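Worked example 2:
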Amino acid sequence: MTETTGTPRRVALLVNENAFGVRADDPDKLVRLCRAAGIDVTAVERPGSAQEMAEAAAAHAESATGLLVVGGDGALNASLPGALNRPVAVGMLPRGTVNVWAREIGMPARAEAAIRALADGTVESMDVGRIAWPESGASGYFLLMAGLGFDGEVTRLVNRRMKRIVGIGAYVFASLAAYFRHEPYEAVVEVDNRTYKLRLTQLVAANCRRYGGDLPLVASAQPSDGLLDLWTLGPAPKIAHAARFAMIVARQADQGDRLLPGRARRVRVTAQHPIAVQLDGDPAPPLPGPVELSVVPGAFRAWLPRRNIRAAARQSARLTHP
């Protein structure tokens, strides 16, 4: 059962000033809008890196009742290590390139409407995914999805300076580069203690429905069911993959190649070479050895907009993607 509680009223603002949509006067403007909506902003932080974002989240996780991350999915992901399994609720004011989480929860794009929706919103406990590289001891988290393969290569090739200037266009250029460079990988994949040997172009472990924007790639995924939903793409000629991706965008749906079970609690992927990995749309460092994916149930307290906005967003998604 998902735990639901009331709206935070004492919050810290965590602003990613490198995000595509953040402007110099945003912090002052957002503080005024929050206070007008009855939300007291007790601190404004401007973390300059993922590590600093996690540290800022941890610093305010006990004293504030809410954190408002101003930026995109990468900034929200960076806050997770400092906020998970803590009493603080985490909300988002979308200022990123794609803002998948904002689309997932039906968050309005305009700051005024988003803050009003949060002021009347709720807090719900949700799962997150965990990723680990046992050989190096490294680990991380994802709220939306982890991608192993082609999309990991795409995010690795994104030019950060170009992304800051042109936004989603940077992903288009990176996708073209990855299209010519990426090759399928041989892998042994263990899914809840069952073993599969196969070649993969891409594996997506999804905690939420949406992917790359408003595409409900894994329509069955629910962020509070204790499971990861798996979407796979096998090897094929490059021209066939290009046509496949075009159809995915046009139809806004694709069931994948179903090379693995559709849902899992734990996944372990062992390949001959390091696999390109993305977490919530940002690249993870290339690390050697197996990659392990698992679910951390109820670890994230999500600050959500009021229910009528979320219901309208779900209804719109059903009409658009029957």
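The longest strand covers residues 291-304. The CA atoms of residues 235 and 241 lie 8 Å apart.
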